[in-house]
Amino acid sequence: EVRSRARVPIINMTTKLGFEGDIGIGGHIGADTSQYAASQVQRFASFAPVVLVLKIILNQQGLDKPFTGGLGSYKLYVLVAHHLERHLSSGGSDRPSEVLL
C-alpha cells in the first residue's frame, strides 16, 4: 500500500509471516531514531522492555501508525525516556514493572 498523501511518501507492507513495515521515500534514513533508541537503552535498563510493552498495546489498539493518528516510534522513545528521567528523579527504580505502574 502506498500512502502518497503523507509529508513523505510511505510504502506500507506486510510480510507473509504478518510483520508490518513502512518505507519512507525521501525522508530521514532512520539512523537518528536508531541512535537515539540505542543511547536510551544504554542509559536505562527498563527502556527496551517498557517500549516493547507499549508498542504491543499501541498496536492492539490501532494507535501505532502516525499517518492514521497514532504514535510513531521516535515520539514513543522520547516519551518513555522523559518518563524514566522523571520517575528516577523522584526516587523510583529502573525496573520495568515499577516504571509501567
Biggest sheet, strands in spatial order?
Answer: 1-2-3
Q: Give the CA-based shape.
A: elongated
**Number of DSSP helical runs:** 4
Q: Helix coverage percent of residues? A: 40-55%
What letter string, H or E per element, gives the SSE order?
Answer: EEEHHHH
Number of strands: 3
Provide the residue-averaged pLDDT: 86
Any idea what the radius of gyration is? Answer: 15 Å
Could you give a short account of the major beta sheet?
3 strands, antiparallel
Cα end-to-end separation? 37 Å
The structural class is: alpha+beta
- Low-pLDDT sequence parts: none
Proportion of beta-strand residues: 5-15%
Summary tags:
alpha+beta, 3-stranded antiparallel β-sheet, 4 helices, 48% helix
Plain-language structure description:
The chain has about 100 residues and is of the alpha+beta class. About 50% of the residues lie in helices and about 10% in strands. The chain contains 4 helices and 3 strands; from the N terminus they run E-E-E-H-H-H-H. It has a 3-stranded antiparallel β-sheet with strand order 1-2-3, with no helix packed on it. The longest helix is centred in the C-terminal third of the chain and has 17 residues. The model has no long low-confidence stretch (mean pLDDT about 85).
Please render the helix and strand layout as text.
Blueprint: E1 2-3, E2 10-14, E3 20-24, H1 31-43, H2 47-60, H3 73-89, H4 96-99
Antiparallel strand pairs: 1-2, 2-3
Helix pairs in contact: 1-3, 2-3
In short, what is this structure?
The chain has 101 residues and is α+β, with helices and mostly antiparallel strands.
